[in-house]
Automatic annotation (TrEMBL):
One of its GO terms (biological process) is lipid translocation. NCBIfam families: murJ_mviN (TIGR01695). PANTHER family: LIPID II FLIPPASE MURJ. Its main location: membrane. GO terms for cellular component: plasma membrane. The chain crosses the membrane at residues 26-47, 53-75, 87-114, 126-146, 158-181, 196-218, 239-260, 280-301, 322-345, 357-378, 390-412, 418-446, 458-483, 495-519. It holds the Pfam family MurJ. The lineage of its organism: Bacteria, Bacillati, Actinomycetota, Actinomycetes, Micrococcales. The gene is mviN. Keywords: Cell membrane, Cell shape, Membrane, Peptidoglycan synthesis, Transmembrane, Transmembrane helix. This is Putative peptidoglycan biosynthesis protein MviN. It comes from Microbacterium azadirachtae. InterPro entries: Lipid_II_flippase_MurJ/MviN, MurJ. It is found in: Cell membrane. One of its GO terms (molecular function) is lipid-linked peptidoglycan transporter activity. Signal peptide: none annotated.
Length: 538
């Protein structure tokens, strides 16, 4: 457990720095192109497309298949070098082909979200940005291939720290663009081919360096990597079979996301739309990434090892322990972000009115923060067991619900029940409710598979955390109101908003930990252990 603790601390630190610099990157970008407007939504669509396509062809395959397969391969005489060489050769070929096809298909992909009926000018701008952003697919893929291999070899740090390079480069580039062309460039007419090239090129160059920096750490794997097209006889057929389900799963999620954006784009121009949704998701992902990924990634490697060895009792213990640990930290973070939703949104908007409109979108996503952490562990346990078929079905279930709730949000808007200003928030809430139902179904299926996953133990722990979080969040909201509320100094500008967030979050966490201490929650030992690792001893 000490090695897991050290790995989690390293990942938490790297993820924290990465997410903070990512937040700064978004703040600078919002300063250049704005948060609510046709131009920022066009860039948001174009810059998101490489992530979407990459998720379709690579993320699901890597997470679901590569780590468990590498764990098995490293037991070989060569430490897995031959197998990984073949994986890298095949993966690079697929990534290059996918990048070329996706780049050529940029107009069609953009049209799936922005129809000519909405705005032909906005669609044209998104396509122009898309041509500059699509090459990111190749470098996202190489970054993931190298990073997942490092993780499988228990070299956890570089994969988490490399995005910091991307963020720094992007921040510098965005500042240069602002200095050269002025700010904010929120209107479509503000964007000439030269300005499009600067913004799109900066975004893509950061991803290139993010992948390149991982190569410096490859020697630590002690794996000899070479080009190898001899793909027969090493189990790649089994990998393709497993990956087929995850690719279908990623395709379903991608289609659901496209449908959400196609509806949300109706609000583009004057109300929260795709850019605000992306920024709210970025805030949502800060606690999720720092807590869930830093703790869950080492557990996933351990789960894969225990599952491969057939030690199911230890797999059950890993599930219960990881969910309780994640829940302790994550519920406290949830209470803090909820209480500070308005000033947190102000950091990524241009004025307090926009912050008040954006905050409900953030709250809509936050409803599913804890359930998604449970889903993270449950889904990856299926992957560790070599089962990608079952996650496909419960993900399809979620995608159907996402499409249904987004369609319902559109109907409610057309009926006059949901104003255009709350359309994005309603879509976000629908996604959260879909994720909650997905988590319940996935947990039941895994419990049946393993004849129990200690659900009673970790559900009671989560309820104990929620009992402490409710008064903690109320205390934080009270502090926000005492500071002036939505019309106070915490929403006057970005820096006061960040300071307000820190004050509110501090109060929430003090109350949260204090209540759990009174309840003598055993999970406080996890916090004490983390503090001992971070604070130097005498």
């Amino acid at each position: 457990m000490n090695s897991l603790g050290r790995a989690s601390a390293l990942l938490a630190a790297g993820t924290m720095v990465s997410r903070i610099t990512g937040l700064l990157r978004t703040i600078v970008l919002v300063g250049v192109i704005g948060a609510i407007g046709s131009a920022p939504d066009a860039f948001a669509i174009a810059n998101q497309l490489p992530n979407d396509v990459f998720s379709l062809i690579s993320v699901g395959v890597l997470t679901a298949v590569l780590v468990p397969q590498i764990v098995k391969a490293v037991a070989g005489a060569d430490g897995g070098s031959a197998f990984i060489s073949k994986i890298f050769t095949a993966g690079t070929v697929v990534l290059v082909a996918a990048t070329v096809v996706a780049t050529l298909a940029t107009p069609w992909l953009v049209s799936l979200i922005i129809s000519p009926d909405v705005s032909e000018a906005q669609r044209a701008l998104a396509i122009a940005f898309g041509y500059w952003c699509m090459p990111q697919i190749l470098f996202y893929g190489l970054y993931a291939l190298i990073g997942e291999t490092l993780n499988a070899r228990r070299i956890f740090g570089p994969f988490t720290w490399a995005p910091v390079v991307n963020n720094i480069i992007s921040i510098a580039g965005f500042l240069v663009i602002g200095a050269m062309f002025g700010t904010p460039l929120t209107e479509i007419t503000d964007w000439t081919p030269e300005r499009i090239a600067w913004l799109g090129g900066t975004a893509t160059f950061g991803i290139v360096l993010q992948a390149a920096v991982l190569l410096a750490f490859w020697p630590r794997t002690r794996l000899a990597l070479r080009i190898d097209f001899r793909w027969r006889g090493v189990g790649l057929g089994n990998i393709v079979r497993l990956a087929g389900w995850t690719m279908l799963m990623a395709l379903s999620s991608l289609a659901a996301g496209f449908y959400q954006h196609r509806i949300a784009i109706e609000a583009s121009g004057h109300d929260p739309s795709i850019t605000v949704m992306n920024n709210a998701w970025l805030i949502f992902m800060l606690p999720y990434s720092v807590i869930v990924l830093s703790i869950g990634t080492p557990y996933f490697t351990q789960l894969s090892e225990h599952a491969h060895a057939g030690r199911i009792a230890e797999v059950r213990a890993d599930i219960a322990r990881s969910i309780r640990t994640l829940g302790f930290f994550l519920v406290g973070a949830l209470a803090a972000v909820l209480a500070a939703a308005v000033p947190a949104s102000r950091i990524f908007t241009d004025d307090r009115h926009e912050a008040q409109m954006a905050a409900p979108v953030l709250v809509g996503y936050l409803v599913a923060l804890v359930p998604l952490a449970v889903l993270f562990i449950v889904q990856r346990t299926f992957y560790a067991l070599g089962d990608t078929r079952t996650p496909f079905f419960f993900t399809i279930f979620q995608c159907v619900l996402i499409v249904a709730t987004a369609f319902g949000a559109q109907l409610l808007h057309q009926a006059g029940v949901v104003p255009l200003s709350l359309l994005a928030a309603t879509i976000a809430l629908g996604q959260s409710l879909s994720s909650i139902l997905q988590t319940i179904v996935a947990s039941v299926l895994l419990s049946r598979r393993l004849h129990g996953i200690g659900a009673r133990e970790w559900i009671l722990a989560l309820l104990r955390f929620l009992a402490a979080a409710i008064p903690a969040a109320a205390a934080g909201w009270g502090v926000f109101l005492l500071l002036g509320g939505a019309k106070g100094w915490t929403t006057a500008d970005r820096i006061p908003a960040a300071l307000g967030c820190a004050i509110v979050a501090s109060v929430v966490l003090i109350v949260y930990i204090g209540i759990l201490a009174l309840l003598r929650a055993p999970e406080l030992d996890a916090l004490k252990s983390l503090v001992r690792r971070v604070v130097p001893s005498r």
